[in-house]
């Protein structure tokens, strides 16, 4: 079992566990379900007209991007800024257009310039099953996406959006299941290695 297979299986388990835990999960999602289990997603934040936009990595409880979905103009640079919360994180585009290194240090930054119209779906590789995912809408793509008010920019990045009630408990269950699956697959690999000697 490789890392992507494991994450896909863990993600399916996480989605099954979170069904019905939050009213926000049931909202209309124009990203083919990518953001349906993201606890702080409440629409696309419009940053058109900005040359550079900042997204927090490890916001809220340490396992979200804030804001989760943004709209920018072609040519805009998005800068992801690490809070140091939630352990190590990365920023990986679903289609491979960009990928940061795996970092846990507060203040670390990763940037990518979006030159063409379209939608980029991304996530933190080990925390996708916990809903640590985001989207960047470039230009007029995905016009049907619900919109949200832009949070105020601060010197230290964006202000965090509070976690919805019940989300912390659901994330705790998901984290426990993910750890259990990881340990189970690790133990299986160790047994296979020992039996092949």
Automatic annotation (TrEMBL):
CDD domains reported for this sequence: Halocyanin
Record note on cofactor: Binds 1 copper ion per subunit.
Major site of localization recorded for this protein: periplasm
Domain named Blue (type 1) copper: residues: 53-138
UniProt keywords, alphabetically: Copper, Electron transport, Metal-binding, Periplasm, Transport
Coiled-coil annotated spans: none
Pfam families: Copper-bind
GO cellular component, one term: periplasmic space
Single GO MF descriptor: electron transfer activity
Residues the entry annotates as binding Cu cation: 89, 124, 127, 132
Listed Gene3D superfamilies: Cupredoxins - blue copper proteins
UniProt cross-references to InterPro entries, sorted A to Z: Amicyanin/Pseudoazurin, BlueCu_1, BlueCu_1_BS, Cupredoxin, Halocyanin, TAT_signal
Subcellular location: Periplasm
UniProt xrefs under PROSITE patterns: COPPER_BLUE, TAT
Signal in keyword set: no
Cofactor(s) for this UniProt protein: Cu cation
Descriptive protein name: Halocyanin domain-containing protein
Organism, scientific name: Natronoglomus mannanivorans
Organism taxonomic ancestry: Archaea, Methanobacteriati, Methanobacteriota, Stenosarchaea group, Halobacteria
